[in-house]
Amino acid sequence: MTEDHMATLSYARFSNRADQLKVLGEFKISAYEIEGLKVKALTGSAALASFQANIKGSYKGKEVPSPVQVMEVWIRRDGKWLQASYQETPIGEK
Known about the structure:
The chain is mainly beta. It has one helix at residues 17-22; strands at 6-9, 12-14, 27-43, 46-59, 62-63, 68-77, 80-90.
């Protein structure tokens, strides 16, 4: 994860890695299954990943939405791929 990582969830928003790591213990995830993974290269050092996730778990004691559509931005820095952005959007029942 990059230092300036951003995460947007329907139940929380984190504008940097430090803020997200502070509450990591508040997530209780027992299952995170993905389907339909698609990755699109944006440049030689940036890519966009999208998929649907089925999540079983909670954040601060409340059940997290599932299923969700996920979009991630990955960038390559110093030869390593790091997640720069993560967004979940609830999509309702299948």
